Amino acid sequence: MQTAPCNIRRGVEADLPQVLALIRELAAYERAPEAVTNTLATMQRDGFGPAPIFGFFVLENDAADIIGLALFYTAYSTWKGRMLYLEDLVVTEAARRGGLGRLLFDAVVAEARATGAVRLKWQVLNWNEPAIAFYKKLGAAIEDEWLNGNLDEAKLAAYAVAPAAASVAVAPTGRSL
Questions:
Q1: How is 35-52 classified by DSSP, letter by letter?
Q2: Which of 23, 56, 85, 107 could be a cystine partner for 71, CB 3.0 to 4.6 Å?
Q3: Catalytic residue list contains 85
């Protein structure tokens, strides 16, 4: 059941300003508004440049405002093979609790199947009880065994890479994955 009529579709480059606004709304909800350093230019390059690395679905209301987003990318499990990683699923606060998150999730599941993924993965904050309940209602297993590792931008830049390892890295103008 949906709160208002809407249209779900694959995202296009023109959607990115509204998509970035939704990402910022999500970051505020997740108590980290300052953490968003992504830019429109970066998203244009990474999503619509010569080697796109992410895709997304959007939900539009009747006024063509984007009220929902599911952003994903292909990942690889050494144990299982191709998987789809759901980076963010967000419905603007005013449109929540009407089945729209389910519609976006369904589109991501359909994408995983269509691309031959054998697994769909995502993260949810341990305090985000509404999201945890949403995913459990859909039959998802919420794991507590694995811990996340992360090098932020400053730590990534400061990390001392062995010269032999640096020599095999792909330059930005080289072959992409």
A1: G----HHHHHHHHHSSS-
A2: 56
A3: no
